[in-house]
Design a protein that fits this description.
Blueprint: H1 7-24, H2 32-45, E1 52-56, H3 59-68, H4 78-100, H5 103-141, H6 143-147, H7 161-171, H8 178-193, E2 197-199, E3 203-207, E4 212-213, E5 229-230, E6 236-237, E7 239-240, E8 243-244, H9 247-251, H10 258-263, H11 267-277, H12 283-292
Parallel strand pairs: 1-3
Antiparallel strand pairs: 2-3, 4-5, 5-6, 7-8
Helix pairs in contact: 1-5, 2-8, 4-8, 5-7, 7-8
Length: about 300
Amino acid sequence: MISNLTKEQELDLQNTINKWLDIGRSTERLNKPAVVKSITNLYKANGNKKPMFWFCDSPLQCSLAMHLFKNNLGNNLANNLLHNLRDNLANNLNNNLRNNLANNLENNLENNLENNLRNNLRNNLRNKIANNLRNNLENNLESNIRDMKFENYFGGSQWCYWNVFYDFCNKIGVPYNDKDKELLSLWIEQSKECYWWFPFENIVFCSERPIELNLDKDGKLHHNTKPAISFADGYKLYSIHGIIVPSWIVEYPEQITKEKIKQEKNETIKQIMFNRIGFDNNKETLERYLDLLEV
């Protein structure tokens, strides 16, 4: 029973976290042959033939392409891949953890990786993009996009927490059988090489990474004067300390007025608008700020 990490393992844990944060936040262009190989291996492990691949500049472009070709895509495969390959694998590996890791160590590892990978990559980056896409697409394509079942996607490097957790446990001595180790390595390779991808029976839509990503000191999407995240096709998200806001609040804060603050229904965004006025030594700005105190 493994109950504690050695000093070397503690250092390796921190290095592992930093390595995967860098992968999940990368703005390097995809290695497309490696992406094709990693996803094809998962398809074959699930009993599916190699699909066609369509590379897009952003998750938004992937979604629009799926909408255009929705009648010729074949069945969605995300749930099938999750149930057959990931969830069953996780169940097997959890049994090994219970038999080989003390509860306090398992909880410590899970919390450590969760706080640094799941929160920073999945909850902050992937979920922000997903929510923005849903709102953007549903507002513009209405019922058509809902019929596409937007949940049919994987977050690639931004969904790496679970497989990195099990891989690290294996490195410190938790034994897995050869079949489980092989399947876990396929998921690790997918996380390392892929950004967002949308699997169907006959085709996979793969999104490129962003060309620019800006974060605050807590790892939340943030920039005061330009997009927090930008893709090559022009898809952008504006964010103030992890809160997605309309572009004009960031780029044209001088347009913030008492009336616009009153009209804003989201209390968090309303507070951001108020804070964007700020203080300086300019008399006109100070008078405007004092006027907004009445909101």
